[in-house]
Amino acid sequence: MEFANKEYLFLLLLLIPYLIWYLMYRKKSEPTMRMSDTMAYRYAPRSWKVMLMPVQFFLRLAVFVLVVLVLARPQTQNSWKNQTMEGIDIMLAMDVSTSMLAEDLKPNRMEAAKQVAAEFITGRPNDNIGLTIFAGEAFTQCPMTTDHSSLLNLLQNVRTDIAQRGLIEDGTAIGMGLANAVSRLKDSKAKSKVVILLTDGSNNRGDLSPMTAAEIAKSFGIRVYTIGVGTNKVAPYPMSVAGGVQYVNIPVEIDTKTLSDIAAATDGDFYRATNNKELQQIYKEIDKLEKSKLNVKKFSKRYEAYQPFAIAAILLLLLEMLLRITIFRKLP
């Protein structure tokens, strides 16, 4: 609550001299009666009327305070915001080739990438986000959507051994993966369109080269962030053998130059993630770079709120007058 005429509140300072006068000089102004001896009244009990006499004084104080508040014009304020959200259209292009089963990231590259991507999606509720997966070929796992619950379910359903079981051709078709993501973004009306491409290898499949796909992305105003995931030398890889799993060290062959060139051609950035913490930090960095734009307009409307104070003042004043001429009536 606010007061339109705050200066009237200084009138409340008049209560101080009034209180001093009441406590020090009030009794001297009361009518008295001379008696020869007051001994008979010394132990007489005080009537309830005498005990309630100060009620009139407090009623007058309350009336004065309420009148001052009315003069100060109390006002309530009803405010609201008009938000305009400009989201970002994002496609996640994720490598699902068999090499993503390597366990240099825990529990493996694929599961680590899925976990960090899920955190990224959860932190951007206003953006259209989709998912492309690729190995030797590429397809859209989920088109761009703001229904992030469905997107997260489809992300979790991406099996780490999808290429190993022959459901998709094995290999690394970076150009095809990027082209698939670009095809989902090219007709977008959003001012900011982004592809986050994650891979652990070099392009060795597909009919489209990575740089050709990058040029296509650039022509549509799509920015590409590339992430090379995996250690710098060798990584433990689980090989299925009779009776169990045997781990062998496989070389890490990431075409950092091509990934860097893709990012540079589209005004994006290239990142290297050699462990879970670095991968998580990369997504946080991208999250900071690609923030949704939010325009907020504030509106407010004020309403006069003196009526309850005025009504209370009138009622208390009438009550004080009624008590003064009835219960607390004084004879001259």
What does this structure look like?
- The chain is an alpha/beta fold.
- 36% of the residues lie in helices and 25% in strands.
- The protein has helices at 15-25, 48-51, 54-71, 109-122, 148-156, 174-185, 210-219, 256-265, 276-289, 307-325; strands at residues 2-3, 74-86, 89-95, 128-134, 138-145, 193-199, 222-229, 234-241, 244-251, 270-273, 293-304.
- α6 packs parallel to α7 and α7 packs parallel to α8 (256-265).
- The longest helix has 19 residues, at 307-325.
- It is elongated.
- The two termini are 46 Å apart.
Strand percent estimate: 25-35%
- Termini Cα gap: 46 Å
The SSE string, one letter per element, is EHHHEEHEEHHEHEEEHEHEH
- Main structural class: alpha/beta
Q: Could you give a short account of the major beta sheet?
A: 6 strands, mixed
Radius of gyration, CA atoms, in whole angstroms: 40 Å
**In DSSP terms, counting alpha (H) and pi (I) runs of 4 or more, how many helices?**
10
Sum up the overall morphology in one term.
elongated
Spans of 5+ residues with little confidence (pLDDT < 50)?
Answer: none
If you average the pLDDT, what whole number results?
87
The percent range for helix content is 25-40%
- Biggest sheet strand line-up: 5-4-3-6-7-10
Q: How many beta strands in the DSSP annotation? A: 11
Structural features:
single chain; 332 residues; alpha/beta; six-stranded mixed beta sheet; three-stranded antiparallel beta sheet; 36% helix; 25% strand; elongated
